[in-house]
Amino acid sequence: MMNVLSTLLAPDKSGKLPVYIQIANDLMGLIRSGTLQPGYRLLSTRQLALILKVHRRTVVQAYDELLAQGWLESHTGNGTFVAKHLPEVRPVPIKQEGNKLTNPLKKAGFAFDKPAHLDRPVLKTTTRLHLDDGFPDPRLAPLEELSRAYRSQLLHGNPYVRLGYGDTGGANWLRRELSTYLNETRGLKTAPENILIVRGVIMAIYLASSSFLKPGDYVALDSPGWFGAAMNFQQAGARLCEVPVDAHGMDVDFLEELCEKQPIRMVYVTSHHHYPTTVALRPDRRIKLLKLAEKYGFIIFEDDYDYDFHYLSKPLLPLAGADQAGMVLYCGSFTKTMSPAFRIGYMVGPEDAIQHLASLRRIIDRQGDRMLENAIAELLQTGVIQRHLRKSVRAYKQRRDHFCELLKNELPGKVRFQVPDGGMAVWTEFDESVNLQTLAANASRRELYLSNGSVAAYPSPYANYVRLGFASSDLNELEESVKIIRDLL
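^ that's the sequence the OP posted. Answer follows.
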């Protein structure tokens, strides 16, 4: 056994983990595997220290650790033994799959379903240049003001209250400030009780889907649309009904025909800047959509992901502001305001629905980042975010105009698009001669990211369409990006 232990126990004296912990873990593994059976008498601390070439005190610490955990038991004057109360384990040969050994860290020993709708790559752009899905430029964000506000939250006030558990609906200060802000800028009539703080629009959709949808319910959503919303509805077991989109947004007449055929439980709509096409839902369609919701009793989930960035005129007010029947759940986020890294969003709705959603949020995410929520509240109260938005709108409008001119002048005959009234991306159709997969791969080798269309999985009429985000790049970066595309084409 001394020879066996010299091969099975091999602590790394240069490793970060203390040597006595390594020895204890190795012995624990031998007991678990059945190599060392219950009642087996271990070597003395002196003998094992001699074998492992470590100080005896190190082995004593390892034994003490296992004694404290119940893996070993000590009989005074007789030695140290593997605890007899442990079940006897018979060593079994390692299972093999073909010629490969099964690795429990790689492959679970239990079966589970892997729904196809979850099998989508996660976007993580690492290239120097990017024409992304329409993200903000964090270089414009008020990071210094935010860092000061966050630091203030960490250091000042009652630490038990400040750093303890809070309301599952979100920080009260942020909900108060948001209520005022949304009422002033979007024509809503909210109180703090109408607002639930979430970690982003995607969390809001998940909560609404889990709370208000049952397997088999019908959910209507626009086509083309956002796969992130569709994934949530599918996860809830809903059946999807696609509603076509034209130059004026969702075809509400088509939706009415659907309602006459089957009971629609929820309608997901990006009314202000439709995703992905960026068109706005026309006022007459907004009115009809609200009337249909009252008539047929479906929930309207209004995703207003980039309301603040409109360049043509004043933005159209949300559906939620004209909702007289309590049918709309309105959602927005600071992701597009400052940066995707700041996971703060909000859902607005009837007070009883918000309370119910907060109770569900409690069991999946007890509360959000109270420090960040209060820091954002301070920036809203002091007007920092409002000033940031005014500055960003000017910058993004300039970038939109410059980018559209570049597309027009540098890629004639290769792309078709409409200058968007708002948002952070241009809905762009590439000529059918252009292979988006090849173009995106070659651009990546030139340190430029653009979508190849596969993640969004738009329906066939839009197979050669992508969103080209302009907001996260400055004018020089936009010029360089378009030049790379021009050269590749």
